[in-house]
Amino acid sequence: MVTGDGAYIKKINRSLILKTIIEHGMISRAELAKITGLNKATISIQVAALLEEDLIYETQQEHNAVGRRPIMLSIKRDVGYVLGIDLDYKEIQYTLSDLLGYPVHHEKIFLDSEDYEEIVLLLVEHIQKYHKNCSHSRYGLISTVIGIHGTVNKEEEDIFFIPRYKWHSKSLKSDLKEKVNFDLNIHIENNANLSSYAEKVYHYHKSDNLLNIILSSGIGAGIMVDGHIHKGYHGYAGEMGHMIISPEGALCKCGNHGCWELYAAEPRLYEQLAQRLDKPVITQNEFYNLVNEKHPIVYEEMEIFIKYLSIGLNNIINLYNPETIVLNSEVLQAYPNVIEKIKGNLVSSVSQYGEIVLSKLGKDACIMGACAIAIQNFFEVPELIFSDSEKHIPFTNHKIEILNN
Ligand SMILES: [Zn+2]
C-alpha cells in the first residue's frame, strides 16, 4: 500500500465524521465524538481540516436553556454541485443538485432523434452549460452520473445494450470525456441500480437488502445486497423481466418464450385493455379514468396483471430474501389496495420478506440516485443517509435558484 497506516486511518476517520454530519444535518463536536467513538482531539483536528476545505461550517445554536450554547457543524452544501442525468427514451432529464441532495435546477428535454452521435452532442452541450453555471462555487461542477435504461458493463461503464434505442456497445463515457472541454468525473449506470440506491439513501436508510422493481415498458430491477448494489459478473444483474414464468408463452424480443415482462409490464396491460374495450390504444389518462370509474374490465385485467406480478415476486423473494421490496409503477400507484392484493398472492410458507411498498420517488428515483452516488463519491463516505426526505421530493417542483442569473 502506498499510504502509511496513519494516513489510512485518518481517511477512515474523516469519512466517518462526514457521514455523521450529513446524516444529522447539524451536530456539535461533543455529539460527533459520542456517535463516532473517536476521541475529542481527533475530532478537533479533522473538523479543523474540513473547515479549511470549506466543506463544513459552524453555527451557534439559538437558544439552550442551561450552560453554553454549543457550536454546531453542518455541511456547506453550496460549495460544489453534481449533475444527475436520466437518459430515457426520447427524453432526457437533467438535475443539478447541491452537496446534500437538494435540487437547484431541473429540466426535461424531449427528443425526436434516436441517433447516438446527435444525443452525445446534446449531452455535451448541457454538461458544458452546467459546468459554466457552477463555476462561481469553490468546487464547481464535481461530477455527472448518467442513468441508462439498458445494460452497462461493470468495468468500463460501456453501454452493452439499450433496447428502445437499439444501441449496442457504445462507449458513452469515453465519447463524452473526449468531447467535454474540461476535466470532469463521468459515470454511467443502469437506471434500476440508481433507483434502488435512491430508495435506500432517501427513504429506507436501514434496509441493506432492498429490491427495487420498476414496471414500465419492461421490468427492471435494482438489487441491494448487504448495503451494496449487486451487479453480477459483467454488470448486467437485475434483468428480471426476462425470467421465464410460462415456458409455452409468447415469444419475447430476447429470444425466449414466456418472459415475466410479457405479462407484468405496462404495454401488455394496455394492449389487453385496448383489445377488450375495442379501442386502437389506451392512454395512461384513459386508464386512470377507467380505474376511477371502477370499470369492470379494467378491474378484471388488473387482477390478472397482479397475479402475474406476484408470480415473479414469489420467485425473486425466494432468491433474495429481501428486507424491503419497492415497486415503482404508475399503474400500481393508481389502483386501490394493491399492496394488500399482492401480499394476498404471496402465500408460500417458504418465501419470506420484510415489507412490500410502492415507491414514493416514482420517476424521479433514477435521477435522485444519480445525484446521490455522485455526492457519495465526492465525500468518499461508506454510506449516505439523507434524513429529511420530504424536502427532497419531488425534484420536478423545484425552481431555478442559481442558474440563468
Ligand atoms: Zn425475454
Automatic annotation (TrEMBL):
<keyword id="KW-0859">Xylose metabolism</keyword>
<dbReference type="InterPro" id="IPR043129">
    <property type="entry name" value="ATPase_NBD"/>
</dbReference>
<dbReference type="InterPro" id="IPR000600">
    <property type="entry name" value="ROK"/>
</dbReference>
<dbReference type="InterPro" id="IPR049874">
    <property type="entry name" value="ROK_cs"/>
</dbReference>
<dbReference type="Pfam" id="PF00480">
    <property type="entry name" value="ROK"/>
</dbReference>
<comment type="similarity">
    <text>Belongs to the ROK (NagC/XylR) family.</text>
</comment>
<dbReference type="InterPro" id="IPR036388">
    <property type="entry name" value="WH-like_DNA-bd_sf"/>
</dbReference>
<dbReference type="InterPro" id="IPR036390">
    <property type="entry name" value="WH_DNA-bd_sf"/>
</dbReference>
<protein>
    <submittedName>
        <fullName>ROK family protein</fullName>
    </submittedName>
</protein>
<keyword id="KW-0119">Carbohydrate metabolism</keyword>
<comment type="function">
    <text>Transcriptional repressor of xylose-utilizing enzymes.</text>
</comment>
